[in-house]
Amino acid sequence: MPKPSTESIHGHDYYDIETGAFKVPLYLSAIFEHPDRRTGEARKSDRGFEQKYSREENPTVRSFERVIAKLEKGSHSLAFSSGMASIAAVYFSTLKSGDNIVITKECYGTTQDLALNLSKFGVKTTLAGPETEDFIEKIRPGVSLVLVETITNPLVRVANIREIAKRCKEAGVKLVVDNTFATPLLYRPLQDGAWIALHSVTKYLSGHNDIVGGAFVLNDSMDLIDLWEFRRRLGSIMSPFEAFLALRGVSTLRVRFETQ
């Protein structure tokens, strides 16, 4: 099993058989040829979506997603133009009028602000915590979504995600864990039962304060399709250049994180 430091560098699985290049190039193409020239059949990406427009899929972005999925020990990843864009896709694909979302009261301000603004669409937001016991008490059958940060931004409170995930499973509630401050080097929420592990790529993953981006990882292939559709509709895919820089940044994640 490759170590995280190896996955950070080589987890993109890119290799060009014509040139021998093994670093992911920057694909700036807006559109891609739909039929394969040799067979006339539609060319598919490795998760089954037709690759024809960079608002939907891009090879550089896809390579970055492979790395993040491997670091979080998950099956699928989607990368976004910002951390908030990834959270918005989760909210819009999951919630409907009459639903209730529970989030930690000390989470990132805009995460909370967007959830509270969903009240105009009939979604109720309950603020809980920051103590794990108070958070768990608010998770009941009928809640549609729970969002918690592994380490809160910016007050750095640490929640017991394992106990929260256990309660969510008992109540039949989907759990989203913002793992930005912990990174997959310290913790992997999917292994404790989280539905989605989410990141602001802007922080530790890219590590150079020169890009804004977001990403999340999950295991359910059917949920992936619905989330991908919302990214396509919202036009919130990560740009190829940001993905190129994020790949550069994440390759040094371990040495940077340990030093910081």
Straight-line distance between termini: 26 Å
CATH superfamily label: Type I PLP-dependent aspartate aminotransferase-like (Major domain)
Low-confidence runs? none
Strand content: 5-15%
Q: Which strand order do you get reading across the main beta sheet?
A: 1-7-6-5-4-2-3
* Global geometry: globular
User: Strand pairing plus helix content: what structural class?
Assistant: alpha/beta
**How can the largest sheet be summarized?**
7 strands, mixed
Verbal overview:
The protein is α/β, with parallel strands linked by helices and 260 residues long. The chain has one domain: Type I PLP-dependent aspartate aminotransferase-like (Major domain) (Aspartate Aminotransferase, domain 2), CATH 3.40.640. The chain contains 10 helices and 7 strands. The protein has helices at 4-10, 59-71, 83-94, 109-117, 132-137, 161-171, 183-186, 221-234, 240-250, 253-259, and strands at residues 76-80, 100-104, 124-128, 145-149, 174-178, 196-200, 214-218. The protein has a 7-stranded mixed beta sheet, with helices on both faces. Helix 2 runs parallel beside helix 9 (240-250). The protein is globular and about 60 Å long. It starts with a helix and ends with a helix. The mean pLDDT is 91.
Features:
alpha/beta; Aspartate Aminotransferase, domain 2; globular; seven-stranded mixed sheet; 36% helix; 260 residues
Map the helices and strands.
Layout: H1 4-10, H2 59-71, E1 76-80, H3 83-94, E2 100-104, H4 109-117, E3 124-128, H5 132-137, E4 145-149, H6 161-171, E5 174-178, H7 183-186, E6 196-200, E7 214-218, H8 221-234, H9 240-250, H10 253-259
Parallel strand pairs: 2-3, 2-4, 4-5, 5-6
Antiparallel strand pairs: 1-7, 6-7
Helix pairs in contact: 1-2, 2-9, 3-4, 3-8
